[in-house]
Design goal:
The complex is a heterodimer of chains A (544) and B (85). Chain A has two domains: 118 residues, PtsI, HPr-binding domain (Enzyme I, Chain A, domain 2, Orthogonal Bundle); 268 residues, Alpha-Beta Barrel (TIM Barrel), CATH 3.20.20.60. In chain A, 46% of the residues lie in helices and 14% in strands. Chain A has 21 helices and 16 strands. In chain A, strands 1-8-7-3-4-5-6-2 form an eight-stranded mixed β-sheet. Chain A has an eight-stranded parallel beta barrel with strand order 9-10-11-12-13-14-15-16. Chain A starts with a strand and ends in a 5-residue tail after the last helix. Chain B is of the alpha+beta class. Chain B has a single domain, classed as HPr-like (Histidine-containing Protein, Chain: A). Chain B contains three helices and four strands, in the order E-H-E-E-H-E-H. In chain B, strands 1-4-2-3 form a four-stranded antiparallel β-sheet. In chain B, a hairpin with a 2-residue loop joins strand 2 and strand 3. The longest helix of chain B is centred in the last third of the chain and has 15 residues. Chain B is globular and about 35 Å long. The chains are: A alpha/beta (544), B alpha+beta (85). Chains A and B meet through helix 2, helix 3 and helix 4 of A and helix 1 and helix 2 of B.
């Protein structure tokens, strides 16, 4: 197996056979001629032929890729008729008494150079258009055919670069991917791939063409920009699975994007996404999540070699709030400890880390660290709709202490004249049995609950989730867990508060109905599960 | 001779497509139609030169029309710019 990598331009997966696009290389020689007028006549004929070929291509493109994309060939025809371009060619032929091929090649170089040197990526890419029309004229002058490719039912077209007219000449029904050595995101190959919804890799490097052969089986991953040539069984199976999931997800997306999360009998629920960093925001948007139900702030601490300062945190929170444009963003304060260790916290070894010094326990022991995060959060709150949630709560006292620290932070900001939003929602994670059992006492103190089912499961069932030997004892659907969630939901609603679930269980569609019947207001799942859960919700009928 | 200025509002500026449409729109006029940006000029009837100006969104271009049908030509250019750029 060989791996070719470049830049992926369209997220999709394709498996097929490689078809290397071979161009008929025409070597242009400079030849002195006696009668320039004969060259000009040859040139006219070659140009006329080029125009008629292009109008055919235009018609084909019009049918295949629509007017907007076909227009480039109209432009090509106009380029061939461009006065400056033609004057330059004619001038070279007559003043130097040389053959038409040479005159076209030199003119092509000059005009392509002009575009290539412009300071705008779009115009730079137009150099390829000039070369494309010029090569066409030259091929006509020497009566050469255009390039060709071996055809397979599912073909991955590999080339150094593809000109628009060349891509149109391909049999689109059979092309499943493009891989080119050169090209930019603005190149026609990239644009065409996006229009055809097929993966493409550009900038794979000159050398990749030497490593592949016509007919080789290959898998192209447009997400990662990789092509696996002659993949081993494991890779092939992995890519087939990825392709299948990708197609299912896209089909779901098509059907479900923009639709409400509402059951057949009219009960609605919010479906938000869980993310672990600013880079996941794209996935939240793409999957049409209604907000962010759990933004894990740990990445700021894990990616850093020292405590991240207020400004760094502020910028990250501001970015996520702004990106979500007013949609709810619930940020969980730092949840370090147990399985997430950070050196500079110097937490030390523990017998039972899951039951140990972690999350809010660190924050309340070292309020100076906690306050930096809270200040950053409050400052960022003016940029969107922020919720702050605190992990690992077990008692009313802890919560009271947290709320006092929040008040201090607000006072300090006010004294400094720093703005913050008055409509921040404060909530707690329900992830210890204790919190669920006293949820009636906690509910009046907060705006919302969010159930962390992973920890709730491990603490309720006394099962270490890091220990693979305990898997059969770890029944995530255990009635005890569901009853604790139900209890918390009842208590939240009794105090007019809302409750969500942000653990793994939220994405378990075999429980969606149960959660809806409990009155859960929000489910927060990995971005990739948003539409799957939406699909489940839309098929349920709670009146039955 | 008629001259006027126009500020480009199209996001992509004078890229291939509008340049092509512009050439088409003015080809029939006998007047000389010149587009200038930052001291560089190009005939509105010449596609590649027009693209070569590298006119972007927000740029101000100066248009000069001179010839027998300059009134109609200037009106046509103005109309074209308003509609496409």
């Amino acid at each position: 197996m060989k791996t070719v990598s470049g830049k992926g331009v369209y997220g999709a997966v394709a498996i097929g056979r490689i078809s290397v696009f071979k161009r008929q290389e025409v070597q242009v020689k400079r030849v002195r001629i006696e009668r320039p007028e004969l060259e000009l006549t040859r040139l006219e004929a070659a140009k006329e032929a080029a125009i008629s070929q292009l109008s055919e291509i235009y018609e084909k493109a019009l049918k295949e890729v629509g007017e907007a994309n076909a227009q480039i060939f109209e432009i090509h025809m106009m380029m061939i008729e461009d006065d400056d371009y033609n004057d330059s060619i004619a001038n070279i032929i007559t003043s130097q008494s040389v053959n038409a091929e040479y005159a076209v090649a030199v003119t092509s170089d000059n005009f392509a150079e002009m575009f290539a040197s412009m300071d705008d990526a779009y115009m730079q890419a137009r150099a390829a258009d000039v070369r494309d029309i010029s090569n066409r004229i030259i091929r006509n002058l020497c009566n050469r055919d255009t390039a060709n490719a071996v055809s397979y039912d599912k073909m991955i077209v590999c080339a150094d670069d593809l000109a628009p007219s060349e891509t149109v000449s391909l049999d689109k029904d059979k092309v499943v991917a493009f891989v080119t050595a050169h090209g930019s995101s603005n190149s026609h190959t990239a644009i065409l791939a996006r229009n055809m919804n097929i993966p493409a890799i550009i900038g794979a490097g000159e050398e990749f063409l030497a490593q592949i052969h016509d007919g080789d089986v290959a898998a192209v991953d447009g997400y990662t920009g990789e092509m696996f040539v002659c993949p081993d069984e494991e890779t092939l199976a992995r890519m087939e699975k990825k392709q299948k999931e990708d197609l299912e997800k896209k089909a779901l997306l098509q059907n479900l994007k923009g639709k409400e999360n509402v059951t057949l009998d009219g009960k609605s629920i919010k479906i938000y996404a869980n993310i672990g960093g600013v880079s996941n925001i794209g996935a939240v948007m793409m999957n049409d999540a209604g907000g962010i139900g759990l933004f894990r702030s740990e990445f700021l601490y894990l990616e850093s070699s020292d405590y991240p300062d207020e400004e760094t945190q502020f910028l990250a929170y501001k970015k996520v709030l702004e990106s979500m444009a007013g949609k709810k963003v619930i940020i969980r304060t730092l949840d370090i400890g147990a399985d997430k260790q950070v050196d500079y916290f110097k937490l030390g070894q523990e017998e039972n880390p899951a039951l140990g010094f972690r999350a809010i326990r660190i924050c309340l022991t070292r309020p100076e660290i906690f306050k930096v995060q809270l200040r950053a959060l409050y400052r960022a709150s003016v940029y969107g709709s922020l919720g702050i949630m605190f992990p690992m709560i077990t008692s009313v006292e802890e919560l009271r202490e947290i709320l006092e620290i929040c008040e201090t932070v607000k006072e300090e900001l006010r004294a400094e004249g720093v703005e913050y939003s008055e409509s921040i929602e404060l909530g707690i994670m329900i992830e210890t049995p204790a919190a669920a059992i006293i949820s009636d006492l906690l509910a009046p103190m907060v705006d919302f609950f969010s159930v962390g089912t992973n920890d709730l499961t491990q603490y309720t069932l006394a099962v270490d989730r890091q220990n693979p030997m305990l898997e059969r004892f770890c029944d995530t659907h255990h009635e005890a867990i569901l009853r604790l969630i139900e209890l918390a939901a009842r208590n939240a609603h009794a105090h007019g508060k809302w409750i969500g679930i942000c653990g793994e269980l939220a994405a378990d569609t075999s429980l969606t109905e149960r959660f809806l019947r409990m009155g859960i207001d929000e489910l927060s799942v990995s971005p990739g599960f948003v539409l799957k859960v939406r699909d489940t919700v839309r098929k349920l009928d709670l009146s039955k | 001779m008629k001259t006027f200025a126009y500020t480009i509002k199209d996001e992509l500026g004078i890229h291939a497509r509008p340049a092509g449409l512009m050439v088409k729109a003015v080809k029939g006029f006998s007047s000389e139609i010149t587009i200038a940006k930052n001291g560089k000029t190009a005939s509105a009837k010449k596609l590649m030169a027009l693209m070569g100006l590298g006119v972007k969104c927000g740029d101000e271009i100066q248009i000069t029309v001179e010839g027998a049908d300059e009134d109609q030509a200037a009106a046509a250019v103005q109309e074209f710019l308003a509609a496409n750029l």
